[in-house]
Amino acid sequence: MKSSLFAAALGALAAACASAAPSPADPFDFRQAALVYPRMNDGVAQGQASLVGNGQCRNSNGSSLSGYQPALYTESVRPQIHFSPTVNFMNDPNGLVYSNGTWHLFYQYNPTQNVAGNQHWGHAVSTDLYHWKNLPIAIAPEKEGEGIFSGNAVIDFENTTGFFNGSTPKDQRIVAMYTLNTDTSQTQHLAYSSDGIHFTKYPGAVISRNQTQFRDPKAFWDEKSSRWIVALALSQEFGIVFYSSPNMKDWTEVSRFQSYGILGYQYECPDLFQVPVEGGPDDGKMMYVLAISINPGALIGGSFVQYWVGDWDGSKFTPRDNAVRTMDFSKDFYAFSSWNNSPGKKAYAIAWANNWQYSQQVPTSPFRSIQSLPRELTLKYYRPTPQFGDLILNNRPVNLSAIHGKTLYKSENGNSARNQTVNLSGQGAFDITATFKLPANANITYNTIASFEIFAGDGKQSVKTGIQMGEPAVAYIDRRGAGQSFAAQNPFFTDKTSGIIRYAANYTTASSENADQYVLGPLPPSAYLDSTDQAQYIKLQAVVDRSVIEVFVNDGELAGTSVFYFDNDQIPSKVTVSVGDNKLQLVDLEVRALNSIWSKCKE
Amino acid sequence: MKSSLFAAALGALAAACASAAPSPADPFDFRQAALVYPRMNDGVAQGQASLVGNGQCRNSNGSSLSGYQPALYTESVRPQIHFSPTVNFMNDPNGLVYSNGTWHLFYQYNPTQNVAGNQHWGHAVSTDLYHWKNLPIAIAPEKEGEGIFSGNAVIDFENTTGFFNGSTPKDQRIVAMYTLNTDTSQTQHLAYSSDGIHFTKYPGAVISRNQTQFRDPKAFWDEKSSRWIVALALSQEFGIVFYSSPNMKDWTEVSRFQSYGILGYQYECPDLFQVPVEGGPDDGKMMYVLAISINPGALIGGSFVQYWVGDWDGSKFTPRDNAVRTMDFSKDFYAFSSWNNSPGKKAYAIAWANNWQYSQQVPTSPFRSIQSLPRELTLKYYRPTPQFGDLILNNRPVNLSAIHGKTLYKSENGNSARNQTVNLSGQGAFDITATFKLPANANITYNTIASFEIFAGDGKQSVKTGIQMGEPAVAYIDRRGAGQSFAAQNPFFTDKTSGIIRYAANYTTASSENADQYVLGPLPPSAYLDSTDQAQYIKLQAVVDRSVIEVFVNDGELAGTSVFYFDNDQIPSKVTVSVGDNKLQLVDLEVRALNSIWSKCKE
């Protein structure tokens, strides 16, 4: 969060809300927080929070559920397998860290309104990245006018900060770094926790710069230089500045990454992290990726994430080239952040699944915004063209088996099937996966399209996704028919988005003498095709969840995330899988219901 | 033009058309060209073409008008002030050169079908960049399977090529350089003309590279190194390669610009050209801009143009930074090309106003595609943010006075006006320009929007453009309501596009000791505001022309180009100008009809 647009735009709203707020009577009425600006740990002080147990139904502001029980997580627009706060407005994921068997998700949260403002760090935890348990607010502002803006968290195994005593298990030593926003400055601060719930603020700023646009720290322990490194955005100067520290308290600027990619209006949420290469001669090797969110100013409108693959030498990030790549072809994937301390040399991440162009106006209540599906990231060599190899961030959902429900349809090797309609019975969340085959040397037209159309219960509204075959093939999402009342009046709720599909490099046909050959240099066109039948196979997966669709092509080579809002309280109820002309074949199809992660709240 | 997508996709179509073509009976039936593959100058051989006179109504393939007379340039979707061919498919502008008082516009043209393929260089000329006279095809393939692909043209004043004799005036010595496409190669070739109409091919390739993806030469006489330079796209390697030559025939590779910006599937149409700085301490200084079109793979889907401002040292282009910028925020501006030899240190350019995602399917007949309005380009210092200065390509229509018609509405200093409806009487082409004022310190919301809604005659369909105020303000185009029949079925015809608005640097408040201060380094926030009343003024201009809208903010700081297709043969007939809330004021408004450039064809 935080453009001056929103600060400016919401000034009037915030003031209006404060003056109209009810008098503080019900201690569980989340709205009263607008008046009192709850201090850190107010919720926790009740002693009810823990990292285990069946507390999933706790309110996101730490109070009991009395203020919201009746319709908890059952609204027609409420995703069932995506994280969202019980009430009010959420944006960026923050403080992502794996600690003592638990995945922590903090997030930018306004506990008092369903628009941005009054920023706190909300908190939830999971053991599988799908089932989330709401915890009380972790970090709150001290006084009116302050905001706890985005940041991240690390595990201080060796107690370099001195914040912990010997009795705290090493992997429970959580240090959060966040931006304290005021009208006159943005400065960087620490808070720490020994139990993963209660946070203590370290007094004073650890980095300040006489800046109002300086935020979103992403710190990590740097193995190369044996010290802490933090990336911070000089948002309106379009610079990412790196600092180093031995103890998280004393920081020294070491380098700057300046004016790369799409600038837009501001850089936000820098994230430098390591990602394993998947497949090929570098399989398992960890490489660095720098991600930067920008808002507004995405070419597609509003918010988006761009990234560079490169080298980190302990002080400086050097991208492999001057090209800019994006993680998601659609409009609702922003403030991307990776988990620190992920076990097993894996990279996991999540993003806010909305866009500042309309996120404060979308027709969801009493909450606004969700986090994306958790993603597992790898780097893979792809062939964007027959003449070019590229190391691309692969981006697929974390294994969905944790939430798999009933199989609604399953076919394999059904080469003759052209169209298939499957009723979507369940709670509104489904995993639809198909493989399409374009036979060798088939002529293609603009209508050589394989697609899913997911209908609302009324049979009229629908959201679509598909693949237009060709060189390159193109994946798209089309939400034009998915609800009119919001889309028709909002000038920024773009209907159609698309991205081009690359092809996995065919390692077996390339010389392996030089790893660079996998990156630059020709491969035969047959690298596009299956080696046995010279056909082209494309796998399309759509995870649809009431008001969001996330599309993955070829297990994450390409991803697209779009929210949509059916009118009249409709939820997904039927999918039609079809191929646009008879050259294209539906090879296999599986449709599964996904189980609500909030089901315990409904018992 | 030319992705293998289209080659592959159209193979079947081309074959089908050839077999279904009529027997050659009518010598003016343009369709027969499908069979005979007309050789270069077939049309000119009739001796009817000239650069002057009232021949504007000639068919685009050089024949008389008998095959098309009845509805010439009168279709409801036919723009009246934009260049389009009488019949069949046009794409990239080519060979843009100013010669002997005449602006030449060549273009990629399929004289035989209303989809891409069978590429020729079509030709038109103008003395004001608005009124175009169709001339016969300038360069045609010699045999089936060849295509005359994109390229440009230069004036060989000093006859370095030896193509001209002393009697040819120096500024009539036109040399075109184009790509010859076959199934197995793309090579670069020359053709020359002493009269601006008839072209003679120079035998053989002047640059070849054992490449099938090597095209779109843009040559110019380089003042820095006193030799010819050409930029060429290694399209699927994502490189722009520069060559030098003393004589346009013998070329030596001198440098390469590799892997910058958005890569997409291919680089096309590189253009390195000089642009004057407008205003500020560098006023009048010429700087270099490198533009690259990419398709597909634009973040907004399909085709777009990106550019870099930088230095050219006679051999190598070095961008000022690693950021990438775009010329147009919407979907229909591609294959940008500038005119060589423009008089008076000015930069003029044009682009194809469509997108390969749907250009071969849009509901226009018997023609497809138009060129954009001609643009005058300058470089201006802008403030994308209070903390950052940037040299941005300013992009405004060439002075419209050449086609100005009746004034339909004109108000000035009408501070109290909030909404204004003006009937659009004329031929379907209009210039709508308004200035909006946001008073100092006004609170803004998401509804602080100033907008134009241009209605079809049925009063139901409309295309919209507007500005949402804020920091930054955002301009948008919304074609969601402008016709359903095409938009609802095409998965790539995106409805809503937007771009952020920057602010002119306030030179008078900045130190002028160092020109770089205008580029990097803080300026006071007041640079955003008018110095007298601290209000924010934004000027919005929409040129709407039957099936296209081009939007310009603040005289070209931001531009957006969108085609749209009203159903039921409707044309623009009414505009409503409105402000979304009462903080915003409509300061002045002028609505003018624009005169059809094709009117002589209708007499």
From TrEMBL, chains A, B:
PROSITE patterns: GLYCOSYL_HYDROL_F32, PROKAR_LIPOPROTEIN. Keywords: Glycosidase, Hydrolase, Signal. SMART domains: Glyco_32. GO terms for biological process: sucrose catabolic process. Residues 412-575 form the Glycosyl hydrolase family 32 C-terminal domain. Coiled coil: none annotated. Pfam families: Glyco_hydro_32C, Glyco_hydro_32N. Residues 82-380 form the Glycosyl hydrolase family 32 N-terminal domain. InterPro entries: ConA-like_dom_sf (IPR013320), Glyco_hydro_32 (IPR001362), Glyco_hydro_32_AS (IPR018053), Glyco_hydro_32_C (IPR013189), Glyco_hydro_32_N (IPR013148), Glyco_hydro_beta-prop_sf (IPR023296). One of its GO terms (cellular component) is fungal-type vacuole. Residues 1-20 form the signal peptide. One of its GO terms (molecular function) is sucrose alpha-glucosidase activity. Belongs to the glycosyl hydrolase 32 family. This is Glycosyl hydrolase. It comes from Pseudozyma hubeiensis (strain SY62) (Yeast).
